[in-house]
């Protein structure tokens, strides 16, 4: 039988329709050590497309921690956490995260996607209400869908809109869920105001620090820590600024115990490989230290420099961040500009629907602590030429 049967034609029309809309996706092939430079589809470029904000993915001591752990614990955890896969590396990292986050307890998940699905489904049922920012990540949206809780979307960052919904809400429990630093827009959730709102209405605040962890807060604990807000449910990931893989939720002991007992994306999956956990722990150790402060300082210098140079494209932002969207609108234009930038040695990935709302395709620039001022000047010049 040939590998490509009649039945494979089934999918062709749908693919063609995706292509006609300018939304066909493919995976660029990346080569070499992660860092400020990237080789993508054979072209060398300065990398402005990863989430490796502090360059931990290529950090030597994090790599050493991973190799040492592999020699000590082996490659895989061999079973799920509740069966036989709960190793000393898991316990150590979770205790470390709880202390770092100032929480009673923490538990790790295989990924941020799994964490958001697991947390939301474990804590809610159809008697509950989830209030979700309209630009929350797909993993939060999917968690809401799977939870069977009533979900209401409030306008992006709009505390008053959330309040209007809360004033009329009668539910067993209410959750307000938001990212801290928004993944595709780089703006910040009004966590202080959301915290007060939740206090006023007895609601639970859940904050996803996927893009805040490592980068914000006095020891890289995230934006909530920077603003002195203490959400009941604090989720963050280990694969972005921390450069490894996985995610965590930190909170009270009963909260974390309930998640361990009920989150199906935690229970019914093989535990993460111990070397991943030991590496993540070393990455947290670095971002929580003086070295981490220097990295955050460098990243921040780069944020300010880039924003100054590309002001004609993005205007003056009240609070610039390490994620910089350059709005183009049309999907095909966005991808074409991304390609021209790559040819000139700057990798800025285009982001299209459904990752962002229809008609709001953009280039999404991400900064790293290890970018040099020259890297940033080059990127700014090319962007002004190509997208200006
Ligand atoms: C990336 C991301 C996730 C998912 O985390 P992974 O570890 O990559 O699965 C969740 N929430 C937000 C806001 C993200 O940007």
Write the layout of secondary structure elements.
Blueprint: H1 12-20, E1 30-31, E2 37-40, E3 43-47, H2 60-73, H3 81-85, H4 88-101, E4 105-109, H5 112-123, E5 129-133, H6 138-147, E6 150-154, H7 159-168, E7 174-179, H8 191-201, E8 204-208, H9 223-226, E9 233-237, E10 247-251, H10 253-262, H11 264-267, H12 274-287, H13 290-309, H14 311-314, E11 323-329, H15 331-343, E12 346-347, E13 350-351, E14 361-366, H16 373-387
Parallel strand pairs: 3-12, 5-6, 5-7, 7-8, 8-9
Antiparallel strand pairs: 1-2, 2-3, 4-10, 9-10, 11-14, 13-14
Bound molecules: pyridoxal-5'-phosphate.
Q: What does this entry look like structurally?
A:
49% of the residues are buried. This protein starts with 11 loop residues before the first helix and ends with a helix. α5 packs parallel to α6 (138-147). The protein has a 7-stranded mixed sheet, sandwiched between helices. A 4-stranded mixed sheet has the order 1-2-3-12. Strands 11-14-13 form a 3-stranded antiparallel sheet. The chain is of the alpha/beta class and 388 residues long. Helices cover 44% and strands 16% of the residues. It folds into 2 domains: 24-53 and 290-387, Aspartate Aminotransferase, domain 1 (Alpha-Beta Complex), CATH 3.90.1150.10; 62-287, 3-Layer(aba) Sandwich (Aspartate Aminotransferase, domain 2). Pyridoxal-5'-phosphate (PLP) binds next to α5. Residues 111-113, 116, 137, 139, 179, 183, 208, 210-211, 237, 239, 247 line the site of pyridoxal-5'-phosphate (PLP).
């Amino acid at each position: 039988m040939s590998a490509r049967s009649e039945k494979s034609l089934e999918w062709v029309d749908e693919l063609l329709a995706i292509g006609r809309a300018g939304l066909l996706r493919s995976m660029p092939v990346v080569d070499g050590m992660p860092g400020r430079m990237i080789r993508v589809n054979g072209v060398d470029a300065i990398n402005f497309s990863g989430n490796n904000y502090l360059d931990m993915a290529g950090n030597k001591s994090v790599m050493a921690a991973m190799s040492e752990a592999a020699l000590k614990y082996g490659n895989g955890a061999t079973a799920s956490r509740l069966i036989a896969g709960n190793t000393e590396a898991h316990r150590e990292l979770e205790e470390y995260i709880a202390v770092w986050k100032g929480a009673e307890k923490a538990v790790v998940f295989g990924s941020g996607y799994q964490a958001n699905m697991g947390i939301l489904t474990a804590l809610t049922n159809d008697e509950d209400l989830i209030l979700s920012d309209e630009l929350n990540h797909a993993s939060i949206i999917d968690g809401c869908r799977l939870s069977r809780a009533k979900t209401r979307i409030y306008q992006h960052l709009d505390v008053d809109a959330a309040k209007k919904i809360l004033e009329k809400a009668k539910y067993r429990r209410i959750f307000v869920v938001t990212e801290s630093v928004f993944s595709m827009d780089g703006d910040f959730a009004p966590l202080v105001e959301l915290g007060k709102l939740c206090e006023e209405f007895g609601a639970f605040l859940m904050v996803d620090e996927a893009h805040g962890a490592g980068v914000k807060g006095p020891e890289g604990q995230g934006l909530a820590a920077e603003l002195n807000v203490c959400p009941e449910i604090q989720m963050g990931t280990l694969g972005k600024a921390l450069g490894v893989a996985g995610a965590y939720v930190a909170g009270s002991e009963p909260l974390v115990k309930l998640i361990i007992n009920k989150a199906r994306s935690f229970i019914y999956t093989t535990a993460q490989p111990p070397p991943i956990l030991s590496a993540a722990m070393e990455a947290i150790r670095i971002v929580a230290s003086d070295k981490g402060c220097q990295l955050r300082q460098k990243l921040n210098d780069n944020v300010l420099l880039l924003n100054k140079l590309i002001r004609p494209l993005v205007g003056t932002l009240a609070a610039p961040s390490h994620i910089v969207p350059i709005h183009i609108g049309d999907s095909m234009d966005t991808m074409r500009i991304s390609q021209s930038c790559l040819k000139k040695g700057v990798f800025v990935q285009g982001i299209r629907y459904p990752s962002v709302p229809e008609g709001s395709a953009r280039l999404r620039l991400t900064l790293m602590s290890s970018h040099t001022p020259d890297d940033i000047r080059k990127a700014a010049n090319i962007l002004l030429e190509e997208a200006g």
